[in-house]
TrEMBL record:
Protein name: Tat pathway signal protein
Keyword set includes NAD: no
Ranges where the Rhamnogalacturonase A/B/Epimerase-like pectate lyase domain occurs: 47-288
The species this protein was found in: Paenibacillus lutrae
Pfam hit, one: Pect-lyase_RHGA_epim
Length: 430
């Protein structure tokens, strides 16, 4: 659009449908997503094709220009940015602005390809942004053209919602840095590539560095290189709930902090289903909590058919370093694992209660101390452990101290209890 040309007209849904006559009735019934129809006839709609986007998959700046101009207009007037069915090649990231709600015709119909790897970004601080009903496919990895190389890369953004989208063949789908109250829900993540030096977020579908109050729920993750979701660098008070994860190479969910001043705390991982049945990778871990992680809660998760470990809490091996502390593992179901179900390594004051463990090749629950550090003051209560080929509960090493065992039961284990620790207290266990 030249400096002398007029901007495309802004249509309300009522005006748009009236101008189309009989065709408008068809449009109302089919083309517009339900989320637009539900907002009423006076909702403003900025169709990116009215701003010059082609959606034909051709290389050039037309698609980026059209979408960017529609976003800029919507930030000024309100309403939706609508991306109709088609394939849009974006030569550089679209910069979102506060208050913009961007939707496609559906994840099977509207396809965005980020030629540089990044599709959407925003200048901080931006807020009240929504992205829905479209699919994103990655372009070149590690592009030198832009610093942002995640498909959606946000810094210090708040109240962002990404929903009903599909991310396919992407190195880093969503990167949230120091963001707050972001919702990632009902999305599909498929073939998430990764493991590139200098790119810790590569291979992780949702990477949250810092921030708080995120909700990651009801998503499906398949073929993930590093993790489905990662919470770190002080990320707190966030929930990972009701997701399904399969075919992962390393971990499903990771909570980690390598900074003594930035604990990752008060997060919840609940009611997720994790399986690696028929996957080629071995030695994986479903849920991993590493180093300075405090007061996190793992509950009601299902982990099955994995060549690896169910849950690991892992601290440093040197005294005075970083350790998981005061975390709770409760009501989880773990079965058919080639490793141990739960491993507490150099972890402090962990509560593991009411978990069901069945058919593990190694131990049901293993408490161990490595290096100079130790695991201490763990509470194992009300766990049911059946068919653990090595040991139902193993406490390794004299430095594993102060464990309380109460009301644990089970059968068909190689051994029910092997205790090498010190100051262990046992009540009504086996």
């Amino acid at each position: 659009m030249t400096s002398n040309s007029q901007p495309p007209p802004t249509w309300s849904r009522r005006k748009l449908l009236a101008s189309l006559g009989a065709a408008g009735a068809v449009l109302a019934a089919s083309s517009l997503p339900a989320v637009v129809k539900a907002r009423g006839a006076d909702t403003l709609i900025h169709d990116v094709k009215e701003y010059g986007a082609l959606g034909q998959g051709g290389y050039g700046d037309q698609d980026w220009t059209g979408i960017q101009q529609a976003v800029t207009a919507a930030a000024r007037t309100g309403g939706f940015v609508y991306i109709p069915a088609g394939t849009y090649l974006l030569t550089k990231p679209v910069q979102l602005q506060s208050g913009v709600h961007l939707i496609g015709a559906g994840a099977a119909l509207t396809h965005l390809i980020g030629a540089t790897g990044c599709v959407f970004t925003a200048l901080p601080p931006a807020g009240s942004i929504e992205i829905g009903h479209l699919s994103i496919q990655g372009g070149s990895a590690g592009s030198k053209a832009f610093n942002e190389d995640s498909a959606v890369s946000l810094l210090q953004a708040s109240s962002v919602r990404i929903y009903n989208c599909r991310f396919h063949t992407v190195y880093s789908p969503i990167l949230l840095r120091s963001c707050t109250r972001c919702i990632i829900e009902n999305n599909e993540f498929d073939i998430i590539l990764g493991n590139m030096p200098g790119k810790p977020h590569y291979g992780t579908a949702v990477f949250c560095a810092g921030g708080e109050g995120h909700l990651i729920r009801y998503n499906t993750f398949r073929s993930v290189s590093t993790a489905a979701a990662w919470l770190g660098d002080g990320c707190s008070a966030s929930t990972i709930e009701g997701n399904r994860v399969s075919f992962f190479d390393s971990s499903a969910f990771v909570i980690q902090s390598d900074d003594a001043k930035k604990p990752v705390s008060h997060n919840r991982i609940t009611a997720n289903h994790i399986t690696n049945e028929n996957a080629s990778k071995t030695g994986c871990t479903a849920i991993r909590l590493t180093r300075n992680v405090l007061l996190n809660h793992l509950a009601q998760n299902s982990m099955e058919h994995m060549d690896g470990i169910g849950i690991v809490l892992e601290g440093d091996q040197e005294n005075g370093k970083l350790f998981p502390a005061d975390n709770t593992i409760t009501g989880n179901d773990l079965r058919h694992l080639t490793g141990s179900a739960v491993v507490l390594q150099n972890a402090l004051r962990t509560i593991s209660s009411g978990n069901s463990v069945r058919n593990c090749t190694l131990d049901g629950i293993c408490i161990e101390s490595r290096g100079e550090a130790n695991s201490r003051d763990s509470v194992l209560s009300g766990n049911i452990l059946v068919g653990c080929k090595e040991t139902a509960i193993r406490i390794k090493g004299a430095k594993s101290s102060g464990t309380l065992l109460a009301g644990n039961s089970g059968s068909g284990n190689g051994k029910n209890l092997l205790d090498e620790g010190t100051h262990t207290q046992t009540a009504a266990t086996f």
